[in-house]
Structure formats: C-alpha cells, structure tokens
C-alpha cells in the first residue's frame, strides 16, 4: 500500500468539513501513482469516487494535465501558420445526437487549419459511439498506427488522431475503474482539455455544467494555454447545438486578467439568426450517421448538412480563416459543394492506408 497516496486520499475524502483540495503538485503526483499502479486498487477506486463527490478544482485539473504531459504521448510540432486546433471530445462518445466533429476536422484541414483529435473505443459510462469508430466507417483506421506513423499522417494531411489504447496504454486500467464505479471520475473532465500536441495549440473543449467552464479557464491559464474556446455543446462535446442558442467562451489573452485568469469573452450564437432550423439531428444507427456524413461530403442537401455548415462556419471563423461567422458558413458551403472536403477524406484515407502497409510489412 502506498502511504503517500493514502495521505492524498485522506485530503480529498474527508468530507465537507475537514476535506481539502489538492495542490497542483499533489494532483500530478496522485495521477501518476494511479496510472503507474503505485496505489492499490482499493486506494484508486476510493480516490476516484471521493474526488468525484468533492468535484475537482482548476488547479487539480492542471496537475492532472501535468502528469499526462509527463507520462503520455505528444504529437510533435509541425509547420503551421496557425495554432493547431485540439478538439476535446468526451471519450465515452455520443448516444443521443449526431456528432459532426470528424466532418468539421476534414473541413478545417481542407482550408489549411491543422487539427488533432484523441480518444479510444466504446467506453464507460455511456458507451456511446466514439470518434475512432466513425473514422473507421469513413475509411480511416487510426487504431493500427504507432505514434510515429500518426505523426507522419499528421504532417502530410493536417489531421492527427492520438488513439489512447495504443498510444497511452497506462490509461487503460482507469477505464476498468470507471466501468465498475459507474460514474465519470475527474479524469473525464480533464481529458476534455488534454492537449497531446507539443507545439502552439488552440484547445477547444465542450462542457455541460456551467461551473466546468470556470475549472477549464483556471486549469488552462495555469498551464499557460492562451488560446482556447469553451462550448456548452451537444452532450459535452465541441459541436454547437441547433435547438438553442450556443453559449461559447472565447479566450481573450490581451484583455486584463481577472484574478490571474485569462479573460473570457462571451459569445451567444442563435441558429435562427443564420437561417438554420432549430433542431438537432438525432443519432439513430451508426450506418445512418455515416451515410448522412457521406451525403454532406458529397455536397448533397440533408439535415446533417445544416449541422455541418453551422459548426463549420463557426470554426472557420474562430480559427481566423474567415472574417466573420457568415463568411465561414459561405466558405464551408463552397468547400462541401465543390468536393474539396471529400477530396481531403480521400487523401487522408490514402495516406493512412499507405502508412499502415508499411507497419504491417515491418511486422
């Protein structure tokens, strides 16, 4: 048993009156001891559920991210005119609304904006459809690539995917606890703002509960991340909703800091103001989702196309490619209709398949 870990567990698990928050260094130490198996299973399970009840602080999230940076994978810096966008999507996937982020990534890469995504397979607690499965159905299999081959794909296409079961296997044991506990631990919050990229990055993360935005703001400020976008998105993702006004926090690093935090500029976007229907596309079957995505990539009008244009327009503007939201929507429509985004998917598929052949031949 780890006596050091036991002291950290006592701090977070002592209840409302005597419990304490961890320092950034303590949170980093606790995370490393759990990932490396230096804490016992009983200690790890107790810590995860106690910390969920307590709720993490931004400082604790920063410490967890420190541990991930020390132990985890990093795609290396590439030559990019803009900060690389890192899309933080819930690892336990989507179950109610149709995700659009793979299409958004293709659109951005097509327009010259590099994107990094990360995640694993179907995981607890939701066991929703994960990004890697959508990519596979679109013809792109990230799961067989070692990190150095993923780096090659990233450099050639502007899209990279850190597949955690292969690239960060230390996290695999944590998923077992998450399944047994039946609740998302603080790691589930932290992973949304994890940045597995070594260069200048623009972190984009979704959230559900408003207090999470403040935690993200503090953690990212402590980590020195000056450019971030926080979206009250669909099922905690970066996808903008269409059934309500999108509530978005934009980092404003040049604005005066408040209490040492990077300032946030509030943005409210109403779909009706841009002539979009105000309903989300439901997630039915994986096959239907992929068919709808293929229709979008072919430039065919469909309900999911509205979601693609709504999100694509925002992210083209936010990345600096387009001057405003309406220009972004117009640009997205053009790139879908002229086949440029479909061509980017074809390029990505060919590069991944080519790199995969080299991996198999080496084996």
UniProtKB/TrEMBL annotation:
Matches recorded under InterPro entries: Anthranilate_Pribosyl_Tfrase, Glycosyl_Trfase_fam3, Glycosyl_Trfase_fam3_N_dom, Glycosyl_Trfase_fam3_N_dom_sf, Nuc_phospho_transferase
A single GO molecular function term of this UniProt record: anthranilate phosphoribosyltransferase activity
The keyword Glycosyltransferase belongs to this UniProt entry's keyword annotation: yes
A single Gene Ontology CC term: cytosol
GO terms classed as biological process: L-tryptophan biosynthetic process
Signal peptide: none
Record keywords: Amino-acid biosynthesis, Aromatic amino acid biosynthesis, Glycosyltransferase, Transferase
Location of the Glycosyl transferase family 3 N-terminal domain: 6-70
Domain Glycosyl transferase family as annotated: residue spans: 96-340
Gene3D superfamilies noted in UniProt: Nucleoside phosphorylase/phosphoribosyltransferase catalytic domain, Transferase, Pyrimidine Nucleoside Phosphorylase, Chain C
PANTHER family the UniProt entry points to: ANTHRANILATE PHOSPHORIBOSYLTRANSFERASE (PTHR43285), SLL1634 PROTEIN (PTHR43285:SF3)
NCBIfam families the record matches: PRK07394.1 (NF005635)
Name by which UniProt lists this protein: Anthranilate phosphoribosyltransferase family protein
